[in-house]
Amino acid sequence: MPHSKYNKRLFSETRFEAGFLEDRKTAMWCPFCNHTDTRVVDSRLTSDGYQIRRRRECAHCGARFNTFEAPALRAPNVIKSNGSREAFDEDKLRGGMMRALEKRPVETQQVERAIRDLLRKIRTLEEPEVPSSAIGEWVAAELARLDQVAYVRFASVYRRFEDVQAFREEIERLEKESPGGLDTRQISLLGRRD
Ligand SMILES: [Zn+2]
User: Fold this and answer.
1) Cβ distance 68 to 53 under 8 Å?
2) Which of 82, 98, 99, 142 is most exposed, with the fewest beta carbons within 10 Å of its own?
3) 163, exposed or middle or buried, with CB in 10 Å at 0-12, 13-18, 19+?
4) How far is the CA of 28 from the centre of ligand 1 (A)?
5) pLDDT of 35-70, one tens digit each?
6) Interhelix angle for 132-146 vs 148-158, to 10°?
7) What string of H, E and C letters represents the secondary structure of the chain?
8) Distance from the alpha carbon of residue 125 to the mean position of ligand 1, in angstroms
9) Residues 63, 80: contact at Cβ < 8 Å?
10) Could you give the C-alpha distances from 30 to 15, 18, 20, 105, 186, in angstroms and in order?
11) How far is CA 153 from its chain centroid?
12) Those residues with Cβ within 8 angstroms of residue 104's Cβ, 6 or more apart along the chain or in another chain
């Protein structure tokens, strides 16, 4: 039977996923008596939905203990424009976005979703380092979807427009990209910021 080996593997994986049976390689050892066979007696999602809590029981001494399964995600370090590295800072990203969105008519829920999408993107990069310019572009893209004024505010700080001409070019680029044209009432508010 050419497929028997494959079928056997598939079968054992299926059983493992269903939580019915674990072999010696996947059953966690008892932390109290070191017995190599413990079984899952309960498995549930934590209230935030990002972890699975399992209640295990040792077949030898009967001790019960919890394990948690959570994604092993680690944000990459950020390469700054001067070449130095620093740890990715979620608060900094959030702060930059909130400043750009200050007093703008955007729902908190939308903002939170945009931040969550950005964080997921950054944490699932599987790269050890990422340039701050790349993160800046992603934030700018999210803001452009949320609110044009917020986008221009962010881009004007982040890209440090050299002069009025560079700023104007960015507005023109935006106008070309927006299918319905840019809302000029929004843009006119820009000059009145603080
Ligand atoms: Zn035990």
Assistant:
1) yes
2) 82
3) exposed
4) 11
5) 999 999 999 998 878 889 999 999 999 999 999 998
6) 160
7) CCCHHHHHHHHHHHHHHCCCCCCCCCCCCCCCCCCCCEEEEEEEECCCCCCEEEEEEECCCCCEEEEEECCCCCCCEEECCCCCEECCCHHHHHHHHHHHCCCCCCCHHHHHHHHHHHHHHHHCCCCCEEEHHHHHHHHHHHHHHHCHHHHHHHHHHHCCCCCHHHHHHHHHHHHHHCCCCCCHHHHHHHHHCC
8) 39
9) no
10) 22, 21, 18, 55, 63
11) 24
12) 147, 149, 150
Phi and psi based region of residue 91 (left: phi greater than 0; alpha: psi -120 to 50; beta: remaining): alpha
What residues form DSSP beta bridges with 67? 54
- Cα 65 to ligand 1 centroid, rounded to whole Å: 10
Which strands sit side by side in the sheet containing 85-86, from one edge to the other? Answer: 85-86, 77-79, 129-131
pTM of the model: 0.54
- Identify whether the C-beta of residue 147 lies closer than 8 Å to the C-beta of residue 101: yes
pLDDT digits (tens, 9 = 90+) for 152-174: 888 887 766 555 666 677 777 77
Q: How far is the CA of 32 from the centre of ligand 1 (A)?
A: 5
Amino acid at 104: R
Q: Compute the distance from residue 43 Cα to the ligand 1 centre, in Å.
A: 19
Output the CA 34–ligand 1 centroid distance in Å. Answer: 6
At 87, list the tokens.
């740890």
